[in-house]
Amino acid sequence: MNKSAKRYLITAARTAGKQAHANYSNFPVGAALETTDGEIITGCNVESSSYGLTICAEQVALAKALSEGKSSFKTIAIVGPNPDFCPPCGACRQLLYDYAPDLSVIMTDGQNTKTVKLSELLPLAFGATKLERKRK
Q: Which residues carry out catalysis?
């Protein structure tokens, strides 16, 4: 991915983060998920006073994309409020892996970007192939 495309995806994630409902953590996060055909679907975190019901930005973006019939993804950018990289949480890593195991993840600290493969963030991942029963 070239620098211009990365900047565009990061900007989309940053813009999405401005819509975050982070009333409890004060940690707004934005995500921009790119389909293999180049469409960008964004999401922001939506918190609940019952913390377990909070939905991460990555989950919102993925759910929106899936609900709109998208099923093939290549890159996600994630932007948090701190001057540090904002990697996806463990639950988001698993959910993203279930739908896009080869996904590239872009993070920024405001100055630099870091791009890693999802498989680097979730080594020895548990996925659909682990659920297939072996025949005798």
A: 58
